[in-house]
Task: structure prediction
Amino acid sequence: QGLSVPKDMSVIGFDDAPLAERIAPALTTVRQPLRKMGLMAAQMLLRMISGETLETKRIELTTSLVIRESCAPPSVKNFQKI
Result:
């Protein structure tokens, strides 16, 4: 298609896999606290197995944006197409 990242479009991934920083251009990603997420899920499961009724149905954890080479502000040329 002849498109270039990030010149023509930005690309963002999710989960910050180790490969994300090793490819060219390095991939901007959203990083999740996977270890904390797993720990909290295991704790909730153990509480449910023990018969406890959980009032919490939803838990929100903070994510972070890891900015690398695959995203850039829109160019004036591309911005006008929107």
User: Anything to note?
Assistant: The CA atoms of residues 48 and 54 lie 7 Å apart. The two ends are 19 Å apart (CA to CA).
